[in-house]
Fold this sequence. Notes:
Blueprint lengths: L2 E6 L4 E8 L4 E9 L5 H11 L4 E6 L9 H17 L2 E6 L3 H9 L5 H22 L2 H4 L9
Parallel strand pairs: 1-4, 4-5
Antiparallel strand pairs: 1-2, 2-3
Amino acid sequence: MGRWLAIDYGRKRMGVAVGDSQHGIASPLEGLAATDPDTVGRIAQLAEEYQVAGVVVGWPLKADGTEGAQAKLSKAFAAELGERTGLDVRLWDETLSSFEADQRLSGQLTREKKKRRHDAVAAAAFLEDFLRSAGQRNAPCPGEVRE
């Protein structure tokens, strides 16, 4: 399965992480401003730099497994990312990744530094789940998901 990037998509900020399936471990990389017109270009640059097999975008499903407004935005971003970069882009349920990020950052950084790292740590949390769950075989591409 190789290396994968994860994107924790948000309207203001996005977190980016990288991990590999051999070890099932992911590391937070950086946060990106969602409003930056070159965000997709930066993701493509990171994908090339880390020689990834693809990108997994967090998909915040509701408790009943349906899509809310944020999940639809994440899916649309994932589709655009795939179209613009040609990368293999998958969706992965990111449920509890923010809670996991809070736990990982607890007591380690100042409030401001936590805020800057939170999204990348959340991306690492759901990427580890993706890697350990054979995500490439189980995660849909954005175009495969019907409402």
